Amino acid sequence: MSALGFSNDVIGLFNSVPAVALLLVGIPFAAMADRIGYRIFLLAGGSVAVLASLVLALVGSRLVAVLAAGTFALAVIVLQVLGSPLLAQVSGENERVALFSLNQSISWAAALAGDVLGGLIPEAAARVMHASSASASAIRSAFVAMTILTVLSLPFLVRLARAAGMKPAATFPVRELFKIDLARFGRILLPSLALGIAAGMYLNFTQLYLAQRFGLTPGPIGVIFAIGAALTAIVTLAAPAVGRRFGITRTVGISQVIGAPLVLALAFIMVLPLAVVIMTVRQLALNLQGPLGQVFGMEYVDARERARLATAQVVVSGIGVGGIGPLVSGFLQVRGGYQLAFSVSAVFYLLAGVIYLLLFGRTRLPSEAR
Length: 370
What we know:
The chain is mainly α. Helix content is 83%, strand content 0%.
């Protein structure tokens, strides 16, 4: 978006559009998936993602590019909504933490490959076209690779959709959609919203942060992200052991609190190597708690409410990460730079961790009691 000439506040607004759309359709979508099964939604999400990525790769119009990017993001979010209920359905209490951790580790391994390709491809295209690697034409070459990879993923998605046991464990009519334990849902979703806002104010602008503050091009930025993704893929596998040692809820809450001073430091640091180290430490700490937080939510509510909780978590997190967070951060950056935006992000990281510890610091899950 920056290569197309959009300012940071406008980029933040664009990043918020998929979250707003998910807010409007997320819960009804979950009810439909619970009633008729996940297959049609998996296939539809994959097909829309391919179409949107193809448009991004081929079309140069700013308006069309914005619409395609938002559509691609929404399709990916739809697929993510189905992830936690499926994992919770196919796993038992003893293996759930390990399964969620492995899933997140594989996701980071994929992110590693994406970061490498996302940096190398524009650099190579720029040399061929004798243009800047930050130009729209060079970056569009990365979208071509993204389209190819998305197409290659379709056979696996089709196989997943056809696999046995894809229908949810418990179904319910639409009229019972909101017959849930609202108090428990509210306690889980409140810190999730604060964490989502904190992450949205920071994560959506890390690439621009490195480019604008330190003058890095997509190649070096891709290397930095790739190293972080590789380390995260490894560290995430340690989540089950850390959860057993310190307790799931304490690990989750403290990891979120740790994010506050790290992001605050990034707001003012002007030394690239130190900034990269702090960015990596923040990424490791926050992603170590990710699968533990997902498992806690799945075990904290009744089994019949898991799909709805998973959807609500994705919706609330999306509101923060893709909605409120980037919108507020872009607004603050235009007026006070990264110093102001990242400082406010640090406040929300601290708020999320403190709320989580106050609500759940003494809570132990059934799987922890054995």
